[in-house]
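Hi P.,

Sorry for the delay on this. The queue was packed all week, but I finally got your sequence through. Input first:
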Amino acid sequence: MTQAETLDLENPLWVFALDFYKRPGVAKACLAIQDALDADIVELIVILYAWSRLGMSLTEGEGAELRAEMQDWRATTVLPLRQIRRALKPPRTDMPHVTKEALRDQVKRAELLAEQMQIAWANTWLEGLTRTNRSLEHNPVPTWFVTATTGDPKSKIRTEAFSVVVQTVTDMRLRS
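Then the structure:
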């Protein structure tokens, strides 16, 4: 990610992300997509926000640029924090549960802040895109995003999870 002068952490994309994620079934679907397919859910949320709120579908080239720009931050900050948080989840015999959970909560907050920073940067990136003469695809999740993930493309988890995501963001777009 290129360095910005400042990042607006409370930006419209962040507000959308919070609203989207709290909807029924979305958190579970996003975690399934993330875990089963090694997908970047922040990238997916950016794509969905552009489609539902900005009325534009990102091109494959824009998706590649977005992914390349966010890749280092995700790899060096978000993913290590997630790995630490997950490592602290199982019970341990060498540390009192309450103490371990206090640390895990701190790591969880740091992971969320790292994702919020990634979203703030993506919001700035989206603001720099040309919005005229843009197409809006029927499906909010472009084929190039789905094919960029790993895992079985026909898995039941993938199909069900993307179905929840697509239905939710479509409903959000119709109500906005």
